[in-house]
Amino acid sequence: TDENDHFPGYIAGNVVLPPRGIKDAEGVGLCSQVFNVGECQPNSLELALADPSTNDGEFDHATAQRYLLSKGDMFHVPPGNVYRIENHSKTEKASLFWTIVKCTNRAEQDSDED
After folding, report:
1. Which residues lie closer than 8 Å to 1 by C-beta, 6 or more apart?
2. What is the pTM assigned to this prediction?
């Protein structure tokens, strides 16, 4: 965030999943996360997005919403959610570019008071 705590901070990077690779379930907390699929076999990259209102916010395979993604697709993980990514390809890696937008310290403090 900036010194006056008016604007959120962000970090960005990439992740490569080998064939059959999995990014285990991870929560985003108060942050918001955006992914862009750079490379992958068509319809082989699975995003599973948990329902944060069930199972005490833990990832539940049975109730997660699932999407099959391809090169060029984008997705957003809203604050408070848990997600998991799996590359179902047997032969091709999957590369993703991500950006995490952090909330301001003020917003985080407001959330702690609720």
Report:
1. 7, 8, 9, 102, 104, 105
2. 0.82
